[in-house]
Amino acid sequence: MTSQPKAVKIEAVIFDIGGVLEITPRLGVNDAWEARLGLPAGGIGAHMGDTWAAGMIGAVTEQDVETRLAALLGPHTGDYLADLWKEYLGALNAELTAYLRGLRPRCRTGIVSNSFVGATAREQAAYGFGDLVDVLVYSHEAGVAKPDPRIFHLACERLGVAPGQAVFLDDHEPYVEGARAAGLHAVRFHHNQQAIAEIEALLDRRPPTADRRPPTGAGQAQPVNSTAGPARLNP
Predict the structure, then answer these.
(1) Residue 173: which H helix or E strand, with range?
(2) For helices 192-204 and 94-103, angle between their N-to-C axes, nearest 10 degrees
């Protein structure tokens, strides 16, 4: 496991979105639509896999995605996409978002998200993430995705901090390790109390007090299927 950077003053805290700032349980959209249309199980993922991956780094447009889907779903394409975006956006993790909002002006704040073409406007309309942080880095706009170190370095550059002056919060261990390999401090998100305690420990240089057992209720990381749709492609 990659070690944390040497102790320096933390100047910025960077958050993931899906499974962290958004609570994103799987709604079974693909399964439902495959059953409805008589498609084989996994048929949508098999047909769209390359397109989902390309959309994560902005290599296709929303129109490209719709055209590719229409070849399989025909007139049902629009309704399917509406269901998929509902799943993608999930629900706001209000407690963690309030903590993020309260970090300024104590430190700079940012978001780094493996995203999909069309996510920027939809998430801004739903949650206003662009107004909450100093820097928002979407993979579909940056052309590079986690765990590539370039996306972490891009966020730090835009925030005006060295990697060792930033801490990154994510629910997916390979991305946590990717951030550490890029020189950032990193915290694995399990639930709100634990994540906030670990970030505060880094900001204040004191031992975290919260255990890693999630309390009952929202704010817990959710598993994500890489072939399910225009998600952030966490396994």
Answers:
(1) helix 173-181
(2) 20
